Amino acid sequence: MYKNMALAGLLQLLYVMASAQTSPPMGIPNLSIPSLTVSSLAIPSLETINPLAVCNCPSGCGVLPVKLLEFEGMRQSTVLVKLDWKTTNEYNNKGFIVERSLGNTDHFDSITFVAAKLQGGYENKYNLPDNNDFSGISYYRLQQVDLDGRSTFSEIVAVKGYGKEASLALYPNPVSTKLTAEVFTPVKTTAVLLLTDATQKLLYTVNVELLKGINFINIPAAHLGGGLYFIRVVTDQDKTITGKFIKL
Question: Of the candidates 23, 83, 85, 166, which lies 20 to 30 Å from 127 by C-alpha distance?
Fold first, then answer.
């Protein structure tokens, strides 16, 4: 019954639309609708109705921002700082402006630009050596720049300087064959260098003459098994400086 009523209403609507084309307007006559039985009603398949189109623009439509997984800085020597960072979701990423501030975070200067690597959901690793002999604390941050010019800043990382005290840096770390110990001392002195394993067992010792400033000592490491090791340098003024490294 409801289908017959719907069909009748449709016929009346078509008649009104046709009558609107004439002048003067025609009234709506009483239509005599025969009794009809609608056995089926053709409805377009839902598959023919287009859903909301998916954006496919080169610059990305509502894509996730670049995700910075980690960012760290480590002093390798009195004159070198190494920066490492890891990212994912690099869509629309142009690259990174690396910025540095010495002594405080009041003013950052751009030191270089690092271009983006693989675009997409890949995990990318970056590293950057920075020639930096500042004796105080150095602050670093990344400015990530999109292809459209927009940018965001990372958190700030702090890297200590060596100051005026005796200090020790070991590199490369981890090491495979030859380890370099970089020893800084404010005065000329003699010292003994000791190499121990994780159980504090003494494996190697050598007497060294240290000049005022930076001194380099080569330590054979190829014969060492994989694991954690410690270096101690004891001066004739009873000053002890320590460091640790990992043997691959």
Answer: 166
Question: By C-alpha distance, which of 165, 190, 183, 186 is closest to 219?
Answer: 183
Cα(229)–Cα(166) distance, integer angstroms: 20
Rounded distance between C-alpha atoms, residue 168 and residue 136, angstroms: 16
Q: pLDDT tens digit string along 37-73?
A: 444 444 444 333 333 233 333 333 445 579 999 999 9
Q: How far apart are the C-alpha atoms of 1 and 145, rounded to whole Å?
A: 66
d(CA 226, CA 248): 5
Q: 106 vs 102, 109, 143, 156, 159, CA distance in Å?
A: 9, 10, 16, 12, 16
- Positions of the chain with pLDDT lower than 50, given as ranges: 2-3, 16, 22-29, 31-62
CB of 70 closer than 8 Å to CB of 58: no
3 state SS of 116 = coil
Domains along the sequence of the chain with CATH? 2-41 (no CATH), 67-159 (2.60.40.10), 167-247 (2.60.40.2550)
Question: What pLDDT is stored for residue 77 in this prediction?
Answer: 83
Closest CA to 66 of 122, 140, 128, 21: 122
Q: What pTM was estimated for this model as a whole?
A: 0.51
* Residues 103-128 pLDDT 10s: 888 899 999 999 999 888 889 999 99
